[in-house]
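Q: Could you write out the predicted structure for this multi-component system? I'm mainly interested in how the pieces pack against one another.
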Amino acid sequence: MTVLLDIAEVSKRFPVTGGPGLLARFRRRLSGGPENLPKVYAVDDVSFSIDKGETVGLVGESGCGKSTLVRALTRLLDVSYGSIKLGTRELSLKAARVFARDRDRARIQMVFQDAGESVNPRFTAFAAIADPLRRLRKLRGKALRERVETVAAQCGLPLQLLTRFPHQLSGGQRARVGIARAIAVKPELLVLDEPTAALDVSVQVVILQLLQRLKTEFGMSYLFVSHDLSVVRLICDRVLVMYLGKIVESGPAAEVFEHPLHPYTQALVAAVPRLHEGRDERLRLAGEPRSPIDPDPNVCRFYGRCPRGADACKTTMPALRQFGARHVACHFAEEFLPPLRTAS
Amino acid sequence: MTAAPALTVEGLSVEFRTRTGIVRALENVSFAVDKGETIALVGESGSGKSVTAYAVMGILDPAGRVTAGRAMLGDLDLLAATPKQLAEVRGRKIAMIFQSPRTALNPIRPVGRQIADVLIRHGNVSRRDAPAQAVDMLRAVGITDPARRAKAYPFEMSGGMCQRVMIAIALAAKPSLLIADEPTTGLDVTTQAVIMDLINDLAKQLGMATIFITHDLALAGQRSARIVVMHAGHVVENAPTRDLFAEPRHPYTAELIAATPDAAASLGELAAIPGALPDLRRTDLPPCRYSERCPRKIAACAQALPHAAPGAAHFVACWNPLPVQTQVEQTMRGPTVSAA
């Protein structure tokens, strides 16, 4: 497998400016420069890679830095530290504003959450799909029309709907517009941010199957961001679990959901409602997450909410350690390893 | 059934007048919830779950009109009650938890005062005692440092905490019936589990009947004793949770279960539901609003649907339901109400 996207030690920190007020401005002045301000560690030292044709899931609760990470690697946001490599090209050196006009812009595209909100309400479906083609592929006239119609057909969007505005389309049709817009410029990496969160189950199935078909047809790689674990389990090859800016567990999706090693992943998996089982009462996370502002580098981010937490968690930040195909950042991951299957 | 029903809804029909025609949002909706019982209303968007709740609460949009039916809360018909009677009942006997807590709370009033308001209005608490009791309520819903949090505004709290505040407000006057309309939509799964535990536990403590509205069949299954499946303004199936999952009788219920990603081993195994909800403005809607999408359609589907008899254990609004497998129930197989 060739690596398509390689992310190494990426961090994104936002200074806490304290707002626009006069007092806040005075405080900022007193602190002596933006580097002295407290910072939100939105993404902290994250490394992973995505192979060609692979679907990687990114899960975690709201506020864990999923969106910041995604925006950093789609180059909509500049990173504070680290490298983002697409193929052989280093992308992190270019400012997001410059990258918007880069020739590689078309190689990473994104499907945003809830197409009803993310498609310009004053654009028809045609105009929405045509926009990236105009900007990035410089298509005009007949060529543009043909390309838009091809992509719409590939996404199962009837051509007579192309003249409609988003509010005249159903949820499923809007999702198709969002997908068509993203794949129109033939990206190699498609980032999907909760593509089915706004849809009913019956429509969700159709859209997921469409995404699966498009992936094999065009050989794209997917980064699938979601907090619906039952969907991630079905569509992803590998999964990354994020908690407060850090990746706490990664590995093949089936393994991670079958035998989660990190206590946070365990709580996440236990919280998913299941059709044919009763309530799983083993694990409940009490309390709120720790503050992401200037976190103590020596305390595990999950400490305080973690049911397994011990003294070691207060003094050393657990590093990601390898267990077969998986990586886990927990001092006690061994305890949760499934019993070794002895070959008979 | 041993316990008396806390709420009985019978033959509820609701219409909305719109510029483009009359939307028949609900037609002949019937169900009951016993004291201390939790039932779930499940369906896709547009199926009429929330409209049912709003009609019962008497907070329908002005364009909406109840055209038929009763909703009996004890001896009081909520649909025929005067505004004054309703104002007495709401908050005190029935309370509601809304979707998106952040928008349902008053953004410019500290949360402690919002709880105190309800206590003063409905809980027979004096103005002097209300703030302290509000803090107790916040503690009861599991908010840490409640005294300080009581002074916070909704925007200063996380989504999960706002939902806890909503629950505290809803339960302030110890109502006998709680309607929770998608209480965990937009919350993380871990928070969802905690919030649902909280609602379940408090309902048990107070002996409260709960109507839980959701589109998540798996969540409904975990949290309720009985599930009412709705489709396009009709109740299509109403059964104890275990029976519904083990042997769905209505074709729509079966398809809904097959479309839920949780149970499937692979994406290919998931079945999409063909077709879409019918346009409820149509004047020529068939008696069964699912019949145009239904794989099991027969000639009998053109006649009026069987209606739910109150007290039936397993109701299916279908003339050609899926067969039951078990021997015992085989004898009760039939198009109309089958009591399991």
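A: Regarding packing and overall arrangement: Residues 9 and 307 of chain A are 28 Å apart (CA to CA).
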